[in-house]
Amino acid sequence: MKMPYTPQSQIKSALRKLFLRSREHNTALKRSKYCCERCGVKQTKPKDKEKWVKVEVHHKNGMNWPELIKLVREYLLCPAEDMEVLCKKCHKSVDEK
């Protein structure tokens, strides 16, 4: 029987959502006063979709999605054989060691 696994696209989507809601992401936007740090254009509200300007947060060092997803699979979404089901009390005692 083939073991189920979480698709790569689902992992990437969850990580993107985490980043977009993160304090780090919001801090970068506030630091720049919601302006592009290259050309200076300011983000506008979507009242008029044709004139709407949206700024995005870019990782200067790039984003290595394959490596990040590999680490998530290795440590968080490892095979079920490498996991055990514990009650909350036992799980806490194992994590404290």
Secondary structure blueprint with pairings:
Elements: H1 8-20, H2 23-31, H3 65-76, H4 88-96
Tertiary shape: elongated
Mean pLDDT: 91
Uncertain stretches: none
Main structural class:
mainly alpha
- Estimate what percentage of residues fall within beta strands: under 5%
**Helices and strands, in N-to-C order?**
HHHH
Number of helix segments?
Answer: 4
Question: How far apart lie the N and C ends?
Answer: 35 Å
How many domain modules? 1
What is the percent of helical residues? 40-55%
Number of strands: 0
Radius of gyration, rounded?
20 Å
Major beta sheet, specifics? none
Structure description:
This protein is mostly helical. The protein has one domain (8-96). It has 4 helices and no strands. The protein has helices at residues 8-20, 23-31, 65-76, 88-96. The longest helix has 13 residues, at 8-20. It is elongated and about 55 Å long. The model has no long low-confidence stretch (mean pLDDT 91).
Identify the notable features of this structure and list them briefly.
97 residues; single chain; mainly alpha; elongated
Short overview:
The protein has about 100 residues and is mainly α. The chain contains 4 helices and no strands.
